[in-house]
Amino acid sequence: MLFDRDIHSEGSASPASVPTDDQGEEELVAAAKVHDEQAWSEIYSRHVEKIYSYIYFRVGDRSTAEDLAADVFVRAIAGISKYEYRGMPLLAWLYRIAHNVTADYRKSAAKRATQETAELPEEIEHSVDAIGMLDERNDMMQAIRSLTDDQQQVIILRFYGGMSNAQVAQVVNKPETAVKALQARGLRSLKRLLSEPERRTA
Predict the structure, then answer these.
(1) Inter-CA distances, 181 with 14, 52, 151, 152, 193, Å
(2) In CATH, which of 1.10.3720.10, 3.10.450.10, 1.10.1740.10, 3.40.50.2300 is domain 1-109?
(3) C-alpha 25: how far from chain center
(4) Number of H helices, E strands in the chain
(5) Cα dist. 202→129, 149, 168, 171, 196 in Å?
(6) How far apart, in Å, are the Cα atoms of 176 and each of 16, 100, 154, 184?
(7) What tens digit of pLDDT does each residue of 18-39 get?
(8) What would the pLDDT profile of 85-138 be if each residue is shown by its tens digit?
């Protein structure tokens, strides 16, 4: 898959001019602001897999997730001049962009679905389901996409993005107490959805 090749090929290089994780992200952001190609290569290799996974869990289609993940980095390059490093991880900023990109895609997809014939959305749905059946996490992905938008974000960032409650609160721009509440409600809903008989026998 092209996306995988990009991840491995760009992740294999470690240019001397690019700061390491231990040096922090502030210098990396400064280099990115002046359009340093090595800096952007490093940003991409560090974060592309998590951004892709976040989008994939929300849309359920590999090809679409690849396209949208690429769009996230295009938007990041375009908007980096306005980004100010204030201690919040660059990944949190990228997650915000990924949320906006995904939301735009879903709105556009919903609009197209209302304009097309009844048969075409059904064909698209079957195609997405066929791809999902190849993934052992299909039941979980379907369940996550059944949650509210806020619950989806919190669950994905916490348990698949590996972020703390405090970090998630920064990304979704909500108090940490709200994040904990969304997490609790989301987990209860997932437990209920995944225990439904039709899901176990699907």
Answers:
(1) 40, 26, 9, 13, 18
(2) 1.10.1740.10
(3) 20
(4) 11, 0
(5) 12, 25, 33, 35, 10
(6) 38, 21, 11, 12
(7) 444 435 788 999 999 998 999 9
(8) 887 789 999 999 999 999 888 888 766 655 544 444 444 444 344 333 334 456
Amino acid at 47: H
Q: What is the dotted CATH code of the domain comprising 137-202?
A: 1.10.10.10
Dihedral pair phi/psi, residue 92, rounded to 5°: -65, -40
User: So where are the chain's domains?
Assistant: 1-109, 137-202
- Retrieve residue 45's tokens: 């290799």
CB 202 within 8 A of CB 183: no
Q: Is the dihedral of CA 21, 171, 2, 33 positive or negative?
A: negative
Please state, in angstroms and rounded to a whole number, the distance separating the CA atoms of residues 172 and 153.
Answer: 8
pLDDT(59) > 70: yes
The total number of residues written for the chain in this structure: 202
